[in-house]
Amino acid sequence: MKRIILYTACILLLAGCANGQTTNDFASVPKPKPGEKVATFGGGCFWSMSEAMSELRGVDKVVSGYAGGTTKNPTYEEVSSRETGHAEVVQIYYNPQVISYETLVNAFFFAHDPTELNRQGPDEGTDYRSIAFYRSPEEKATLLDVIKKVNASKHYSDPIVTQVVPFIAFYPAEQYHQGYYRLHLGENPYLTGVSEPKVMKFRKAEKAELKPEFQK
Protein backbone atom coordinates (compact mmCIF):
# COMPACT_ATOMS: atom_id res chain seq x y z
CA MET A 1 0.00 0.00 0.00
CA LYS A 2 2.82 2.43 0.88
CA ARG A 3 4.43 1.77 -2.48
CA ILE A 4 1.15 2.53 -4.27
CA ILE A 5 0.72 5.79 -2.35
CA LEU A 6 4.32 6.80 -3.07
CA TYR A 7 3.95 5.95 -6.76
CA THR A 8 0.74 7.98 -7.01
CA ALA A 9 2.38 10.95 -5.30
CA CYS A 10 5.32 10.79 -7.72
CA ILE A 11 2.97 10.74 -10.72
CA LEU A 12 1.12 13.80 -9.44
CA LEU A 13 4.36 15.67 -8.83
CA LEU A 14 5.72 14.85 -12.27
CA ALA A 15 2.44 16.00 -13.80
CA GLY A 16 2.33 19.02 -11.49
CA CYS A 17 1.22 22.53 -12.17
CA ALA A 18 2.67 23.53 -15.58
CA ASN A 19 5.25 20.73 -15.61
CA GLY A 20 6.81 20.33 -19.02
CA GLN A 21 5.49 23.56 -20.58
CA THR A 22 7.96 25.95 -22.20
CA THR A 23 6.13 28.43 -24.45
CA ASN A 24 6.30 32.10 -23.44
CA ASP A 25 3.26 33.46 -25.27
CA PHE A 26 1.93 35.69 -22.49
CA ALA A 27 -1.69 36.60 -21.88
CA SER A 28 -2.76 40.24 -21.81
CA VAL A 29 -4.03 42.15 -18.80
CA PRO A 30 -7.56 43.42 -19.51
CA LYS A 31 -8.80 46.78 -18.32
CA PRO A 32 -11.71 46.63 -15.87
CA LYS A 33 -15.09 47.33 -17.38
CA PRO A 34 -16.99 50.39 -16.12
CA GLY A 35 -18.02 49.71 -12.53
CA GLU A 36 -15.78 46.66 -12.17
CA LYS A 37 -13.19 46.19 -9.45
CA VAL A 38 -10.09 44.04 -9.35
CA ALA A 39 -8.70 41.73 -6.65
CA THR A 40 -5.52 39.65 -6.60
CA PHE A 41 -4.92 36.47 -4.57
CA GLY A 42 -2.48 33.58 -4.55
CA GLY A 43 -3.21 30.14 -3.14
CA GLY A 44 -1.09 27.47 -4.75
CA CYS A 45 -1.30 26.36 -8.38
CA PHE A 46 -3.38 28.90 -10.24
CA TRP A 47 -5.16 26.25 -12.32
CA SER A 48 -7.64 25.31 -9.59
CA MET A 49 -7.71 28.77 -7.98
CA SER A 50 -8.61 30.37 -11.31
CA GLU A 51 -11.42 27.89 -11.90
CA ALA A 52 -12.84 28.21 -8.40
CA MET A 53 -12.94 32.00 -8.34
CA SER A 54 -14.36 32.22 -11.87
CA GLU A 55 -17.40 30.20 -10.75
CA LEU A 56 -18.56 32.90 -8.32
CA ARG A 57 -21.54 35.11 -9.14
CA GLY A 58 -20.40 38.57 -10.12
CA VAL A 59 -16.98 37.47 -11.34
CA ASP A 60 -16.53 38.38 -14.98
CA LYS A 61 -12.98 37.26 -15.65
CA VAL A 62 -9.99 35.66 -13.93
CA VAL A 63 -6.43 35.94 -15.25
CA SER A 64 -3.62 33.69 -13.99
CA GLY A 65 -0.29 35.36 -13.36
CA TYR A 66 2.49 36.26 -10.98
CA ALA A 67 2.84 38.84 -8.20
CA GLY A 68 4.57 39.53 -4.92
CA GLY A 69 8.14 39.50 -6.21
CA THR A 70 10.67 41.83 -7.80
CA THR A 71 11.33 40.49 -11.31
CA LYS A 72 9.44 42.28 -14.07
CA ASN A 73 7.56 40.18 -16.63
CA PRO A 74 8.75 36.82 -15.26
CA THR A 75 8.31 33.51 -17.06
CA TYR A 76 6.89 30.42 -15.39
CA GLU A 77 10.36 28.88 -15.33
CA GLU A 78 11.79 31.95 -13.57
CA VAL A 79 9.01 31.96 -10.98
CA SER A 80 9.50 28.23 -10.41
CA SER A 81 13.20 28.84 -9.67
CA ARG A 82 12.03 30.79 -6.57
CA GLU A 83 14.54 33.53 -7.33
CA THR A 84 11.96 36.14 -8.41
CA GLY A 85 10.00 36.32 -5.15
CA HIS A 86 6.75 35.94 -7.09
CA ALA A 87 3.88 33.62 -6.28
CA GLU A 88 1.36 32.09 -8.67
CA VAL A 89 -1.73 34.28 -8.36
CA VAL A 90 -5.05 35.06 -9.98
CA GLN A 91 -6.37 38.51 -10.82
CA ILE A 92 -10.15 38.69 -10.51
CA TYR A 93 -12.42 41.17 -12.30
CA TYR A 94 -15.73 41.43 -10.48
CA ASN A 95 -18.91 43.47 -10.17
CA PRO A 96 -19.14 44.86 -6.61
CA GLN A 97 -22.88 45.31 -7.09
CA VAL A 98 -23.21 41.51 -7.33
CA ILE A 99 -20.41 40.23 -5.09
CA SER A 100 -18.73 42.18 -2.32
CA TYR A 101 -15.00 42.22 -1.67
CA GLU A 102 -15.63 40.52 1.67
CA THR A 103 -17.51 37.67 0.00
CA LEU A 104 -14.67 37.33 -2.49
CA VAL A 105 -12.14 37.16 0.35
CA ASN A 106 -14.19 34.55 2.19
CA ALA A 107 -14.31 32.44 -0.98
CA PHE A 108 -10.55 32.76 -1.41
CA PHE A 109 -9.94 31.27 2.03
CA PHE A 110 -12.06 28.24 1.10
CA ALA A 111 -10.51 27.81 -2.36
CA HIS A 112 -7.24 26.58 -0.84
CA ASP A 113 -5.68 25.70 2.50
CA PRO A 114 -4.44 29.02 3.94
CA THR A 115 -2.74 27.27 6.88
CA GLU A 116 -0.02 25.63 4.77
CA LEU A 117 3.20 27.64 4.72
CA ASN A 118 4.89 27.91 1.32
CA ARG A 119 3.04 24.95 -0.17
CA GLN A 120 -0.31 23.59 -1.29
CA GLY A 121 -0.66 19.82 -1.24
CA PRO A 122 2.09 18.30 -3.42
CA ASP A 123 3.30 21.72 -4.60
CA GLU A 124 6.10 23.07 -2.42
CA GLY A 125 7.91 26.40 -2.49
CA THR A 126 7.35 30.12 -1.96
CA ASP A 127 5.84 30.37 -5.44
CA TYR A 128 2.88 28.39 -4.07
CA ARG A 129 2.45 30.45 -0.91
CA SER A 130 -0.87 31.82 0.29
CA ILE A 131 -0.90 35.56 -0.32
CA ALA A 132 -3.57 38.28 -0.53
CA PHE A 133 -3.02 41.76 -1.96
CA TYR A 134 -4.93 44.86 -0.90
CA ARG A 135 -5.43 48.03 -2.91
CA SER A 136 -6.80 50.23 -0.12
CA PRO A 137 -6.83 50.46 3.70
CA GLU A 138 -10.43 49.22 3.60
CA GLU A 139 -9.41 46.07 1.73
CA LYS A 140 -6.58 45.45 4.18
CA ALA A 141 -9.00 45.78 7.10
CA THR A 142 -11.40 43.35 5.41
CA LEU A 143 -8.66 40.78 4.85
CA LEU A 144 -7.50 40.94 8.46
CA ASP A 145 -11.07 40.77 9.75
CA VAL A 146 -11.92 37.72 7.64
CA ILE A 147 -8.72 35.99 8.76
CA LYS A 148 -9.67 36.65 12.37
CA LYS A 149 -13.16 35.24 11.84
CA VAL A 150 -11.98 32.13 9.98
CA ASN A 151 -9.40 31.44 12.68
CA ALA A 152 -12.06 31.85 15.37
CA SER A 153 -14.41 29.47 13.53
CA LYS A 154 -11.87 26.63 13.87
CA HIS A 155 -12.70 25.56 10.31
CA TYR A 156 -9.00 24.85 10.01
CA SER A 157 -7.17 23.17 12.86
CA ASP A 158 -4.13 25.39 12.33
CA PRO A 159 -3.97 29.21 12.12
CA ILE A 160 -3.97 31.00 8.77
CA VAL A 161 -0.51 31.93 7.49
CA THR A 162 -1.62 33.97 4.46
CA GLN A 163 0.57 36.98 3.68
CA VAL A 164 -1.40 40.24 3.53
CA VAL A 165 0.55 42.77 1.48
CA PRO A 166 -0.08 45.92 -0.59
CA PHE A 167 -0.61 45.39 -4.31
CA ILE A 168 2.26 46.62 -6.46
CA ALA A 169 2.20 44.84 -9.80
CA PHE A 170 0.62 41.89 -11.57
CA TYR A 171 2.25 40.07 -14.47
CA PRO A 172 0.06 37.78 -16.61
CA ALA A 173 1.15 34.18 -17.00
CA GLU A 174 1.70 32.43 -20.29
CA GLN A 175 -1.38 31.95 -22.46
CA TYR A 176 -1.47 28.18 -21.97
CA HIS A 177 -2.21 28.68 -18.26
CA GLN A 178 -5.38 30.66 -18.90
CA GLY A 179 -8.49 28.54 -18.42
CA TYR A 180 -6.25 25.47 -18.18
CA TYR A 181 -8.57 23.57 -15.82
CA ARG A 182 -11.56 23.51 -18.16
CA LEU A 183 -9.45 22.87 -21.25
CA HIS A 184 -7.54 19.88 -19.88
CA LEU A 185 -9.58 18.27 -17.13
CA GLY A 186 -9.59 14.54 -17.82
CA GLU A 187 -6.29 14.71 -19.72
CA ASN A 188 -3.87 15.79 -16.99
CA PRO A 189 -3.48 13.50 -13.93
CA TYR A 190 -2.52 16.47 -11.78
CA LEU A 191 -5.87 18.13 -12.51
CA THR A 192 -7.73 14.92 -11.74
CA GLY A 193 -5.83 14.08 -8.58
CA VAL A 194 -5.16 17.52 -7.11
CA SER A 195 -7.11 20.34 -8.77
CA GLU A 196 -10.51 18.73 -9.25
CA PRO A 197 -10.95 17.69 -5.58
CA LYS A 198 -10.16 21.27 -4.54
CA VAL A 199 -12.72 22.70 -6.97
CA MET A 200 -15.37 20.19 -5.85
CA LYS A 201 -14.71 21.06 -2.20
CA PHE A 202 -14.97 24.75 -3.05
CA ARG A 203 -18.31 24.28 -4.81
CA LYS A 204 -19.71 22.55 -1.75
CA ALA A 205 -18.47 25.27 0.63
CA GLU A 206 -19.52 28.23 -1.55
CA LYS A 207 -22.65 26.85 -3.22
CA ALA A 208 -24.82 29.85 -2.34
CA GLU A 209 -22.32 32.21 -4.01
CA LEU A 210 -21.85 30.28 -7.25
CA LYS A 211 -23.22 31.04 -10.67
CA PRO A 212 -26.37 28.94 -11.36
CA GLU A 213 -24.62 26.46 -13.66
CA PHE A 214 -22.24 25.43 -10.87
CA GLN A 215 -24.86 25.00 -8.14
CA LYS A 216 -26.07 21.63 -9.45
Give a concise summary:
The protein has 7 helices and 8 strands; from the N terminus they run H-E-H-E-H-E-H-E-E-E-H-E-E-H-H. With 216 residues, the chain is α+β, with helices and mostly antiparallel strands.
Folded structure, characterized:
- The protein is α+β, with helices and mostly antiparallel strands and 216 residues long.
- The protein has one domain (2-214): 2-Layer Sandwich (Peptide Methionine Sulfoxide Reductase, Chain A).
- Helices cover 35% and strands 18% of the residues.
- It has seven helices and eight strands.
- The chain has helices at residues 2-14, 46-54, 76-80, 101-110, 137-153, 180-184, 189-205; strands at 37-43, 59-67, 87-94, 119-120, 123-124, 130-134, 163-166, 171-172.
- It has a six-stranded mixed sheet, covered by helices on one side. A two-stranded antiparallel ribbon has the order 4-5.
- Strand 6, helix 5 (137-153) and strand 7 form a beta-alpha-beta unit.
- Helix 1 crosses helix 7, helix 2 (46-54) runs parallel beside helix 7 and helix 4 (101-110) crosses helix 5 (137-153).
- The radius of gyration is 16 Å and the shape is globular.
- The termini are far apart.
> What order do the helices and strands follow?
HEHEHEHEEEHEEHH
Number of strands: 8
Mean pLDDT: 92
Strand order of the largest sheet: 7-6-1-3-2-8
Low-confidence stretches: 1-14
**Share of helix, binned:** 25-40%
**Share of β-strand residues:** 15-25%
CATH superfamily: Peptide methionine sulphoxide reductase MsrA
Q: For the terminal residues, how far apart are their CA atoms?
A: 35 Å
Using only CA atoms, what is the Rg? 16 Å
Shape: globular
Number of DSSP helical runs: 7
CATH class term: Alpha Beta
